[in-house]
Amino acid sequence: MAEKKLILTFSPEQVNTSITFRLARDFDVDVNILRAEVNERGGKLILALKGAGEEIDKAIAFLEENKVQVGEVARFVVRDEERCTDCSMCISICPVRAYRLDRESWKVVFEQERCIACGLCVDACPAMALKCGDNTTQMV
Asked: What is 2-72's CATH number, 3.30.70.260, 3.60.140.10, 1.20.210.10, 1.20.120.550?
């Protein structure tokens, strides 16, 4: 089973259409909305699609045919374990709960697969142990 995290941008005219429902029904993919912002000027969704790779590709083609801007989430958060003080600031600010506190070790655990790379944790980290990067980024 493949997974892709996407950023979808909708025009005001598209906001009231059932596009995510159509993805699940017509392409047999699981749609997990990770973050949504919708207003009178349009909308933006960050979502994860899970399913067969060819079905995900067909679903993306459907979105593009319907004039939805589609981008793949290419950024991610990288944590420098040596700088991290386990202060838990990232836990309280993360909108998708990609961070949790291990109650036995009292260490912050980062579940990168849940991360949507919004950058809120990067800005909140007092130790500057978090950075947004892409697949070419390495911590120094």
From this structure: 3.30.70.260
Sign of the torsion angle spanned by Cα atoms 57, 63, 64, 65: positive
- pTM of full prediction above 0.70: no
- Give the Cα-Cα-Cα angle 15, 10, 115 (nearest 5 degrees): 110
Q: How many CA atoms lie within 13 A of 47 on its CB side?
A: 24
pLDDT in tens, 110-131: 998 888 888 899 999 999 999 9
What is the rounded radius of gyration, in angstroms, for the C-alpha atoms of the chain?
A: 17
- The domain defined by 78-133 carries CATH number 3.40.920.10: no
C-alpha to C-alpha distance for 62 and 19, rounded to whole angstroms: 9
Work out the average pLDDT over 76-86.
91
Identical topology for domains 2-72 and 78-133: yes
Give the Cα separation of 42 and 15 in Å (integer).
6
